[in-house]
Design goal:
single chain; mainly alpha; 434 Repressor (Amino-terminal Domain); 4% strand
């Protein structure tokens, strides 16, 4: 069923109750901030401001905060210095990570 076989795609009917249940699931889940996010927010910095201060893109800071990448030692030290924290405080070993690469500066 698609453009190739000549049958147009027809989306399922809108179900407001299902939509409300899904929306409620996301509202109920509290957002868990990691140490880096907590320190950055406490310092009053946006991801963009921190990125400029340490010489990387906002996307790099986002990827580090969301554990999609691990910062290089040089970048971890720069972030820690900018936030007035230790590397160990910002990147504790007990936080789960989804390492897919390493961000460098």
């Amino acid at each position: 069923m698609g453009e190739d076989d000549g049958v147009p795609f027809v989306p399922p009917p809108y179900d407001p109750m299902r939509f409300a249940r899904v929306a409620a699931m996301f509202e109920e889940r509290p957002r868990v901030l990691n140490a880096l996010q907590r320190k950055r927010i406490a310092a009053g910095l946006s991801q963009d401001e921190l990125a400029v201060a340490v010489g990387v893109s906002r996307q790099t800071i986002s990827a580090i905060e969301n554990r999609r990448t691990t910062p290089s030692v040089q970048l971890a030290l720069a972030i820690a210095a900018e936030l007035g924290a230790s590397v160990e405080e910002l990147f504790p070993r007990d936080e789960p990570r989804e390492d897919r690469g390493q961000a460098t500066r």
